[in-house]
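Entry type: protein chain
Record version: 2
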Amino acid sequence: MSRWTLVILLLSTNILYAQSFADQSFRQPVSIKYPVESTGAGLQMQKMVVDRNDNVLALTNQGLYIIIEDELVPDQRYRPLADRKPVDITLQSETGILYYLYEDHYLSNAYAGKPYGTFESRKYSRIAVNRSGAVLLSGENYCTIVGDNQQYTHMLEEPVRGIKSHGNDFFLLTETGIYRLRGDEIKQVVDDPAITAWTFGDDKLFIANQEGYYALSTGNWKEAEGLRTALPVIPATSLTYHNGKLWGGSAMGMYSTRDFEDYRYYASRRWLQDDLVVDVTLDSEGNAYALTEKGISEVHFRSMTLKDKADHFYERIRKRHLRYGLIGEVRMREPGDYSTMEMTDTDNDGLWTSFYLGSEVFRYAVTGDPEARRNALESFEAFERLISINPLDGFPARTFERKGFRLSGGPDDWRPGVDGEWEWKGTTSSDEFVAYIWVAGIMNQLLDLDREEKRRVARFIDQIMTHIIDNDYYFVDIHGEPTLWGRWNPEYINWYPETIVDRKLGSTTITAGLQLAYTLTGKERYKREMYRLFNDHGYLDNIKIPLEKIGSTPGYIYKGHNMGEGGWNHSDDEMAFLTYWVLYHYALNDELKQAYGKVIADHWAIEKPERNALWNLITRGTAGNIDLESVKWHLREFQLDMVRWDIKNAHRKDLEYLEPNFRAQTTKELLPPGERETARHNANPFKLDAGHGGLRSLAGDEYLLPYWLGRYLNIIVPTSDKK
């Protein structure tokens, strides 16, 4: 190899990796919940600490609790203390050693159990211990420092609301602010009567009040961080600081920040057992704990790769989301309780299954794993049954279920199967059609089909396309009438003005289907029909309509149906991008492929604010454009908990809101997936408040498809392959 050949090779390698990223491990937040079992009526949570051994302890009015073996239970480790109820607990400054305060004495089990002090019963209600071992005890409006054979008592003119130690100093919170105690000296260092929480970190005192929070330097007590008011929730009920990150608890969840500008927000049942946070603390690894009335909720940061996350979702799909080869939505009788789950049919089983089936096709293309190929064919058999289960030639059902067990839709949507033991759902839409061409297209490309398997895929598409053409470009249901959304007839398509996306989208989907059918079957009919729609009805011109032309167009009625009212429909984006892959890769000539590439790039540019990894990767695999950082961001931020909890963000003060607009983009910047509702790719990611009460769960194919497509396109490079 010559020197210049090597240089060219190295340059091309660098260019390749400039459009890719290594799948390195990152910290994935996951929720772990530790509910408390009350030992009596009226259990009240008071405070929480994590000691030097990372024991998590919660003080309640009924005694001390501890997390042991993933359960929050009464702390019975020390027999002499097991039946006693501490008045307060604290950690010694910097050492993390636990101290207990009882009605008439304090003690610690550290230092061979030597720390011990007695006093008049019920005199003190709070304890703090400084770095040198001195103890601060406080009552209603007085406090006492005990240490080095000396004792100092301070009488105050106002009630004590809290005490802390920092280094060798002690601090009091009162109704007027914060005071520093050194021996017999007391000095006010913060004048603020509205303090709701406070903590120390990195030589700063962080103070929360009714307006937000700010920080003072512990060296001179001057401002170190100005008042921050753009927070998820105000005021904070508690603050804690660890390794450069500030955490705050509130009446509506918990948040964190590193730069005091951008915040991560952990709220709802996805993260916490309930949102009213009494106290927040961290362990030595930076995992966060929120104390609420129902127990302790941990935001645990697990080291994992994108591949680890893919394995997580794959395992769960195979175990609890496959219904006759179709992806089944899980519904639960109790929120978030998978022991009460059942798999159910939905309106778009074919469409949702196409994401999972697609992920297995791309997984096979990347790994050659025969299991992936087998899984894809398993689900494709369910697609074939969508046609064979009903008596209509080439008409695909939305879904099917054993007789008497249907769930979705109304009774008029369901029809008896040909064998009498099953029912099938009609009213099939263009969403499902897109799933059919997407699945057939990528299976034909990448699944190494044998002759019989190729024949099955071709016949599947041939049957559907024949039905559509023979019925004047409609899906015609059992009653002999077109379905509401299965319409590609020129009169219908061109009835829409260019400002309504259905004109562009319908032309795109049917063109992709005709191209695919021609390639798979070789039947000239499909090629002729495509060019007839182009030349006689302007379908190619419709496909080329720029997305910027699409806008609000109210008042359009088609045969009694209002087809143009409302804002942007994100299902249209989903249909478009899945179709684009087939449209581009099965283009009948290079001129069309080039035109399609421009169409795809135009749509991608409009979609960029949504930062969708799948739309980026489909665009990369066709037109060539990609927002690489958004792909990485979307996949890393994708949450592991797919339960559809109720999520609320509209109250947040840290977001920059936009005026109402056609695309329903509510905020300038998109929230991470872990802070949004659990939704499929057809939902508006800018929707701030949404959910299903924790009674449903998605499968995770929403992650698997972009992950394996990214691997197939060499955008995501396993760490061992990245040089």
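Comment: The first strand starts at residue 21 and ends at 23.
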